[in-house]
Amino acid sequence: MTAHDHPRPGAPAPEAPDPGALDPGALDPGAPLARSSRGPDDPAPGERHAQAVELLPDERRAQVVELLRRRGVVRVNELAAELDVSVITVRRDIALLSSQGLLRRVRGGAVLHGGAVADTLPGVTPQRTPPVPEPGQETGPASVPSLAGSGAGPADAVSATGTGLVPGAGPVGVPATGTGLVPGAGPVGVPAATGHSRTADASAATRHPGIAAAPPLPGRPGTGGQPGAGGWAGVPDQEAAQATIGMVVPSLDYYWPDVIRGAREAAAASGARLVLRGATYQAADERRQLSRLVETAGVDGLLVAPTTTGDEGEELVRWLQGAGVPVVLVERAATVGPHQEAMESVVSDHVFGAAMAVRHLATLGHRRVGVITTTQSPTAPHVRRGWRQACVELGLPLDGVPDLTTVDQRDPGWPEALDGVLDVCVASGTTALLVHSDPEAISLVERCQERGIRVPGDLSVVTYDDEVAELCDPPLTAVRPPKAAIGRAAYRLLAERLADEDPQRPTHRVVIEPRLIVRASSAPPSPRPA
Q1: CATH number, domain at 76?
Q2: Where is this region: Disordered (predicted)?
Q3: Nearest to 297, CA basis, from 271, 275, 269
Q4: At 196, is the secondary structure helix, strand, or coil?
Q5: Residue 86 and residue 44: Cα distance in Å, rounded?
Q6: Per-residue pLDDT for the chain (530 aa), expressed as one digit of tens each?
Q7: How many CB atoms lie within 10 A of CB 528?
Q8: Considering Cα of 219, then 80, then 39, then 64, what sign does the dihedral take?
Q9: Considering only CA atoms, which of 331, 319, 328, 195 is closest in space to residue 267?
Q10: How are beta strands 345-348 and 327-330 bridged, if at all?
């Protein structure tokens, strides 16, 4: 992330309101779910696998209901393995069947309303299971309750109403059209796949100046899904539920509002609901917010800018990997597992942005260019690496020029640190500085004016973030990360992951280039007195 990205002290960031509330009859999200077992009438695993390969979507969903009828309880992961589809596909099937009144979601799996397992789970009122129709017997249409009030239910499980199957037909209420939940076209949008490349430097991934539109998000059947005369798979559009995406960012006031705006606009365009939480740059707080979204709000996927360093950050990354819903990291990158496989992410290319600032200053004639970053910014290492790479590439000296990490401008020690920076600039003949971030750069310019150091005459200044840089006097030249584009691309990548039936879909990492905005704080260096 960028300078924007260092924590601002004060009271914890407020949580955005979450309009979704649990149904009164929803299962306790923390309740354990009994392990399912293969029923006496079930095919052996190998036989099930062979059958699942050729199943059409409606046939697959019929099999889900049939397995529930036989066993009384199944788990999402077990269904995915037996039907030879991805966990995401099973969740979509479960959501559709739930919207048609055939199933009810619980955490971790699916149970029959009136089964013995369901009767033992807390928060469940046992319901009588309707009899299974005899062959040829007509059944009334299944009721299709609105999901508008239950969109915040637990995430990974379902319970069935006990409605049986008419032999030879799909589940009641599911038209046997053979139409799946995913539009026929393949995933569109973010073309930034790097496959399983594990290059540590994010700048090695493909950069993208523009991102195409996201596909309709099918996390749950609803307004963002496949259109048709009868709504999604026969569910009326006005009664279908929106897909729900959780988003957790470390600040709701600096840098992140534009990222949020981009994600919100992309979600609205595809008919999804975005549930926002603000954290405080602390892994424990982020874990708490994420757990609530997954276990209570029943989100279909997560957009998150987590803490990734330190013991707690590493544990949080492992938790995200096993959260049970797709995750896209925003302005963060992380690897997991013994092979250090990358998690899906969308980031600004801060290394490229910092190098672009150095090249701009070198073009103006500066030969001694320093860099200043703050101690707690996750973006600082990337900015420093870009500065160093560009200086080496251009043959600019590194010895003697400021290469400093300081406290930020809110710290009581900032005035002393700032004078130390300027003292080094004067002593070393440094004529240009790259400063991360805007508040520190503005404060530095003010102190230069107090000390009689002219900006840009004696010292050119380029800031990194461009949140408030143009409000300085003089307006600051700035590197502007593509914040809104990051939010849009992150949502679209998550939407594609949810829409893709392929369980072997490769990991995607999207890297988007910042822009350099040239203003009045950078100019050619003044001639030095002889």
Answers
A1: 1.10.10.10
A2: 1-47, 118-162, 187-231
A3: 275
A4: coil
A5: 20
A6: 444 555 544 444 444 444 333 333 333 333 333 333 344 444 444 444 444 455 788 888 888 888 888 888 888 888 888 888 877 778 778 877 877 778 777 766 777 654 433 333 333 333 333 444 444 443 333 333 332 333 333 333 333 333 333 333 333 333 333 333 333 333 333 333 333 333 333 333 444 444 445 666 554 433 333 333 333 333 333 334 568 999 999 999 999 999 999 999 999 999 999 999 999 999 999 999 999 999 888 899 999 999 999 999 999 999 999 998 999 999 999 999 899 999 999 999 999 999 999 999 999 999 999 999 999 899 999 999 999 999 999 999 999 999 999 999 999 999 999 999 999 999 999 999 999 999 999 999 999 999 999 999 999 999 999 999 999 999 999 999 999 999 999 999 999 999 988 888 999 999 999 999 999 999 999 987 65
A7: 8
A8: positive
A9: 328
A10: parallel
**How far, CA to CA in Å, does 486 sit from each of 137, 296, 300, 339, 489?**
55, 27, 20, 27, 5
Are 286 and 231 within 8 A, CB to CB? no
In the chain, what's the furthest Cα-to-Cα distance? Answer: 103
In a domain, 529, yes or no: no
Residue 206 tokens, joined: 């493909």
Of 259, 240, 237, the residue nearest 248 (C-alpha): 259
Number of domains composing the chain: 3
Q: Verify that 472 and 489 share a domain, yes or no.
A: no
> Scanning the structure block, which residue is given the tokens 């939407």?
495
Task: For residue 145, say if its preceding peptide bond is cis, omega within 30 degrees of 0.
Answer: no
Residues 198 and 327 in one domain: yes
In a domain, 277, yes or no: yes
- Tokens 């910014």 belong to 377
Helix (H, G, I), strand (E, B) or coil at 342: strand
Closest to 499 in 3D by CA, of 225, 179, 205: 225
Whole-model pTM above 0.85? no
Tokens in use for 170? Answer: 């799909």
Which residue, among 397, 462, 386, has the nearest Cα to 430 in the 3D structure?
397
| Residues 205 and 102 reside in one and the same domain | no
Contact 155, 298 (CB under 8 A): yes
Query: Chain-centre distance of CA 60, in angstroms?
Result: 29
> Would you say how long the chain is, in residues?
530
- State whether 94 and 129 are in the same domain: yes
Instruction: Show the domain range for 395.
Output: 350-482
Backbone angles phi, psi at 273, to 5 degrees: -105, 130
> d(Cα 412, Cα 361) in Å, to the nearest integer?
31
Q: At how many degrees (to 10) do helices 87-99 and 483-499 cross?
A: 80
Distance separating alpha carbons of residues 40 and 57, to the nearest angstrom:
25
Burial class (CB in 10 A: 0-12, 13-18, 19+), 167: exposed
Q: Check: CB of residue 296 under 8 Å from CB of residue 320.
A: no
Alpha helices in 72-165 (DSSP H): 76-83, 87-99, 116-120
Q: Is the peptide bond before 402 cis (omega within 30 degrees of 0)?
A: no
